[in-house]
Design a protein that fits this description.
Elements lengths: L11 H16 L16 H4 L12 E10 L5 E9 L5 H15 L3 E17 L6 H7 L1 H9 L6 E10 L2 E9 L6 H18 L2 E5 L12 H6 L2 E11 H6 L5 H19 L8 H12 L6 H4 L3 E7 L2 E11 L11 H10 L8 H25 L3 H8 L2
Antiparallel strand pairs: 1-2, 3-5, 3-6, 3-7, 4-5, 7-9, 8-9
Helix pairs in contact: 3-13, 5-6, 9-13, 10-13
């Protein structure tokens, strides 16, 4: 089946439609529910998806408003566009937003670790200390990497040695983009330069030390991309009136689920359903959905406080951007504008990360309360069946 040869002059939308016809005929299936609206695909056929023949629409719901204090000390209020097919999820996050907003104590903090990529080398000369050479010549290969883009700056480099291999991991500031492709291009140029100037074989540009799109203890402990902490105190009145349970019951469930249950499972990241919230926001705003893996490595902490609860989530690895990739598609860019509608002094990429952190805390507290009140199953019966 030829999905690449078309009449000269056809635009992206026309090629998508023609592929749909060819695939439908070849498979003998009615594929019309996958038909893409030409006004909504933007440059997806040229930049985001090869052999594109249609479009899968994901329902998008709105939660909020959610109000909290940013790392700058500025007050922030926003709505959350959530793309999901899981009934009850938006309603639950919405309830969490109401609770956090009423509490009025929630704050977010953020550390930017940079987007990372790890290269692997193998020494060709047993007498050469490759790690030492890489450290000594860092200014040279750093200039090579940073020369690939005016938007990229190498923040730091780490070196690991194992079983005859030397791994060089670079962490980069990629401006407003999430920047994985940008960093990979820079890493490839660095790898080629190192192979030309040192007695090593350049084995691969992506050697897994960076933990890209997979669970990693290193990522959990050290962070990747944006590390966000959202925390605050939920007064007893808020817990009882909005979350319909008690602080004591929430602490009891948190102990059993987050501490003991997660330990038995060997979980990297002790949380309730962080992946749910991150996936819904990533899909809505055009982030790389595979980075939900790192995003879900977060930890949720619940502790008794005088007449209430002290609550916190730590998200060690939010790989997000506000430019490039899927963020430029019409629907996703529109959803992103809901979050970035009124920009404070924060870098917009960090604003998105801190918003996700606050949203995750809302989702975690609402689900924890539902389990404490034994309402989880009934909520799905009522809203998702």
């Amino acid at each position: 089946m030829d999905l690449r040869t078309f009449r000269v002059g056809m635009d992206g939308a026309e090629r998508v439609t023609e592929r749909m016809k060819r695939i439908s005929k070849e498979l003998g299936l009615d594929l019309s529910p996958l038909m893409a609206d030409p006004k909504k695909i933007g440059d997806a056929e040229e930049k985001n998806c090869e052999n594109m023949f249609g479009h899968v629409g994901i329902p998008i719901g709105l939660a909020g408003p959610l109000r909290w204090t940013l790392s700058t000390g500025e007050q922030r209020g926003t709505y959350l566009p959530l793309a999901t097919t899981e009934g009850a999820l938006v309603a639950s996050i919405n309830r969490g937003c109401k609770a956090l907003t009423e509490a009025g104590t929630i704050r977010t903090r953020c550390i930017y670790h940079g987007t990372t990529r790890s290269l692997a080398f193998r020494a060709l000369d047993g007498g050469t200390d490759v790690a030492r050479e890489l450290k000594d010549r860092e200014p040279e290969w750093r200039a090579v990497g940073e020369g690939t883009s005016g938007h990229l700056k190498i923040l730091r480099a780490d070196i690991d040695e194992r079983e005859g291999h030397v791994f060089l991991t670079i962490a980069c500031d990629t401006d407003e983009a999430m920047g994985m492709n940008m960093v990979t291009i820079a890493a490839a140029e660095i790898g080629n330069w190192v192979a030309e100037n040192l007695p090593v074989e350049f084995v691969t540009v992506a050697a897994n030390v960076d933990g890209d799109k997979k669970p990693s203890k290193r990522t959990h402990d050290l962070g990747r991309g944006h590390e966000v902490i959202a925390e605050g105190i939920l007064p007893r009145a808020t817990v009882e009136n909005i979350l319909k349970t008690t602080p004591e019951q929430m602490v009891k469930v948190a102990r059993a689920k987050l501490a003991v249950g997660s330990q038995i499972a060997g979980s990297i990241g002790k949380n309730l359903h962080i992946a749910n919230v991150i996936a819904a926001l990533y899909l809505a705003t055009g982030q790389d959905a595979a980075h939900v893996v790192e995003g879900s490595l977060g930890d949720t902490t619940v502790m008794p406080e005088k007449d209430g609860l002290r609550v916190m989530v730590r998200l060690p690895a939010l790989l997000v951007g506000v430019r490039g990739g899927g963020t430029q598609l019409p629907a996703q860019n529109t959803a992103l504008k809901i979050i970035l509608k009124e920009e404070p002094s924060l870098h917009p990429r960090q604003l998105l990360a801190e918003t996700i952190g606050a949203a995750v805390l809302a989702g975690e507290m609402s689900l924890l309360a539902a389990q404490a009140a034994h309402d989880l199953a009934m909520a799905h019966v009522k809203l998702a069946r």
